[in-house]
Design brief:
heterodimer; A: alpha/beta; 5-stranded mixed beta sheet; B: alpha/beta
């Protein structure tokens, strides 16, 4: 009796291990698209998710604007984290709009060089005064990078975009690739200008500044009235909308556990989407 | 003596003509960066400028968003025509910001299928009602095309952007190049969607609607300014123009009353 039981149990165990392992590889691999600037927290959250579930997540990192452009052009992953606004992505019919899950947001801050006097930015009017008083300001071009969206919104909402244009130093972000420094001044990074003290004020997303925050002073978050946090929203692709593993990943990306990591990475709380 | 004089005169004339000709050719070519959707009026204006001056204009066309990106990336021409907003271009130090000369504006209009009833769009509230009542609307994505800027601005100012997106069709414009229509709904042309009944209303630039496929739609009118401020189209001089005077002459001509008449005829608004 004992002799027959052991081989049976051994076969059962082998079947269970291989049996569960094979489908886990075949069905359990999920693809995720995320924005490059959110790489650190994304990698930590994904690692935690993989450890908890045994599932494998293949992450594609692209720049922030590209997240929505790739989806619009028909290249979503099972789960795509895209940065608003994303009209063509939503209307592309390649993602399931009902799956929209806000996971975090880009928060807009004002920073000054180390040792500089930190201006009052507690109200829109105070920010306006600080920007007009500065000798030079730096931010990124929203045509090339999402890091420029908040600064541009702030400057246009305050009605001073044209007024500060002459003293603005603009960075092209990923648009600078392959361009020689002698071709355009817009190749120089805003963060470098800030570290070198070549600008008085930088307007930026917090998560890009937080890693090297000892190299400058982050004065604080811009008032919401002039720079609304930009939603980062997760969507299931239409092909993966019934995929339980992809759904689980999307839910985990918005979980309280993930929120702690997003926050440590300099990202804000999820913003309601759709907003209206 | 007479023969010698005649030969001398002939040589002088030849030297003058050839000399001035060579000099004129070397100095007289001006480069212009213009926008593809503005090609027809640009060609007409440039032809008039060339006919009235000794200058030859070599035009490079990019798409609306592409031209300001090119300038920001250091590829300005002697004169560049760019559509706002253009912070990267202005700060690139490849153009002279003080030379910025508004020449026209982009107007956003609403169109319906040929023969369909035309909604009231005389006020923001009327536009809002028309858009919400439509089965679906179509517009271009401002990430890819400047023609989407006005539509997106209007939808946001009306506070219905996300609401509209649930049924809307948004086209990627030049971003669609090389993409299969089966890959994404963002590829199919908006005029075709209107004609095929996928959408009831199309928001697009008046200048595009005037020329692209007028047999497929009726243009209802331009959106009210309160919800859609016309986008300025501005000409700027390069910091590296070889013939500064010539480039300046072209820039001034692009904003001249003669040119304004051509821009207007093509569906562009007056300079802002």
């Amino acid at each position: 009796m004992k002799h027959t039981t052991y081989p049976f149990l051994a076969i059962l165990v082998v079947a269970l291990v291989f049996g569960s392992g094979i489908p886990a590889r075949a069905q359990g691999e999920i693809t995720l698209m995320a924005a490059g600037p959110t790489r650190r927290p994304t990698e930590r959250i994904v690692a935690n998710f993989q450890a908890k579930t045994g599932l494998t997540v293949n992450v594609t990192f692209v720049n922030g604007v590209a997240t929505r452009q790739m989806v619009a052009r028909g290249q979503p992953q099972d789960v795509s984290l895209i940065i608003a606004p994303f009209p063509a992505a939503v209307a592309s019919r390649t993602i399931d709009v009902s799956s929209a899950t806000p996971v975090a947001s880009l928060v807009w801050v004002l920073a000054v060089p180390t040792g500089a006097l930190a201006p009052d930015i507690s109200t829109p009017d105070a920010v306006r005064k600080a920007l007009l008083a500065a000798k030079s300001i730096g931010y990124e071009d929203p045509d090339f990078t999402v890091a420029g969206q908040g600064p541009w919104e702030a400057l246009t909402t305050l009605g001073i975009a044209d007024q500060v244009a002459a003293k603005s130093k603009i960075e092209l972000g990923p648009g600078s690739q392959g361009i020689d420094l002698s071709a355009t001044d817009a190749v120089v990074k805003t963060i470098t200008r800030l570290e070198d003290g070549n600008i008085d004020i930088a307007l930026h997303d917090l998560n890009d500044l937080i890693a090297n925050q000892d190299n400058y002073q982050i004065v604080g978050v811009l008032p919401r009235e002039i720079a609304t946090p930009t939603p980062i929203v997760g969507f299931l692709s239409t092909r993966a909308k019934d995929n339980a593993d992809a759904k689980a990943l999307l839910q985990y990306l918005a979980s309280p556990e993930a929120q702690v990591i997003w926050k440590e990475g300099g990202l804000g709380a999820p913003e309601k989407w759709p907003m209206n | 003596m007479t023969l010698r004089k005649a030969l001398c005169s002939a040589m002088c004339v030849a030297a003058f003509v050839l000399g001035s000709g060579i000099g004129a050719h070397a100095q007289s070519e001006i480069t212009l960066l213009a926008q593809g959707p503005m090609r027809r009026p640009t060609q007409q204006i440039v032809a008039n400028f060339e006919a009235q001056t000794r200058y030859k204009v070599r035009v490079t066309y990019g798409n609306g968003v592409g031209t300001r990106r090119m300038v920001a990336q250091g590829q300005a021409r002697d004169v560049s025509i760019i559509t706002a907003p253009f912070p990267g271009a202005m700060a690139s130090e490849t153009i002279i910001p003080s030379s910025a000369t508004p020449i026209a504006t982009l107007l956003t209009a609403l169109a319906v299928r040929k023969g369909a009833p035309q909604p009231d769009i005389s006020t923001p509230a009327a536009v809002r009602s028309a858009l919400l009542a439509a089965k679906a609307i179509g517009f271009e994505d401002s990430d890819f095309a400047s023609s989407g800027q006005g539509a997106w601005q209007a939808l946001n100012k009306l506070g219905i952007a996300d609401q509209i997106l649930k049924t809307a069709y948004v086209n990627c414009g030049p971003g669609c190049a090389g993409i299969s229509p089966t890959a994404t709904a963002a590829v199919k042309d908006l005029h075709d969607r209107l004609a095929d009944g996928d959408i009831d209303l199309e928001l697009n630039m008046l200048s595009d609607l005037i020329v692209q496929a007028p047999d497929k739609y009726d243009i209802v009118g331009v959106l009210p300014r309160e919800i859609c401020i016309p986008d300025p189209v501005v000409a700027v001089l390069s910091t590296h123009a070889r013939d500064h005077a010539g480039a300046k002459a072209l820039l001034e001509y692009l904003a001249s009353p003669e040119a304004l008449a051509i821009w207007k005829e093509a569906g562009y608004g007056p300079p802002e």
